[in-house]
Specification:
Length: about 170
């Protein structure tokens, strides 16, 4: 299946990505986080105005993961937000598209983008209870470098592992 990664730039694309995030989060995090926290975090991280600001002012790039003409997910990156590494802010696939190789193809694209920026590593944060994602990252070659708790307001925290992938050659 042909996979490509169109950059998300328009208001319509951003709105579609935010809708996709809402569907994915409600399914993926329902057993990990309280329902109220899921809604709070969606509003905090996936409001179109937040994404637009990240793109316009904070050097973020968002791309759809398009498989066979269908947007199966998306990712967001930001160079050098976490030291000398490409920060993988977000990568999500719709449930029906998981397990078919799109994760690996997307990670290869993200590594290509890190190289393009001259960066030797990719870093990300993942919820400590998201064992499915942690296993996928480790299988791909990431390793846990540290863990931290981040206060995100309203009494909520993100209790995350920080993972890193070192780019070779």
């Amino acid at each position: 299946m042909k996979v490509h990664f169109p950059t998300i730039t328009t208001g319509e694309q951003i709105a579609r990505m935010c809708e996709m995030a809402s569907l994915i989060w409600k399914e993926a995090y329902r057993d990990m986080l309280p329902w109220e926290q899921i809604h709070y975090m969606l509003d905090l991280f996936f409001k179109p105005s937040v994404i637009e600001k990240q793109i316009a002012c904070e050097n973020y790039t968002y791309c759809f993961i398009n498989a066979g003409g269908v947007d199966a997910g998306f990712f967001g990156i930001c160079p050098r937000l976490e030291g000398n590494a490409l920060f993988l802010s977000k990568i999500y696939l719709i449930r029906e598209y998981r397990g078919g190789g799109l994760f690996d193809q997307s990670m290869n694209e993200i590594i290509r983008l890190a190289r393009l920026h001259g960066l030797p590593a990719v870093r990300l944060h993942v919820n400590k209870n998201n064992t499915r994602a942690i296993k996928a990252y480790i299988r791909f070659g990431f390793h846990i470098t540290e863990s931290d708790v981040f206060d995100i307001g309203r009494g909520y925290v993100m209790d995350d592992h920080i993972l890193e992938y070192l780019i070779r050659g």
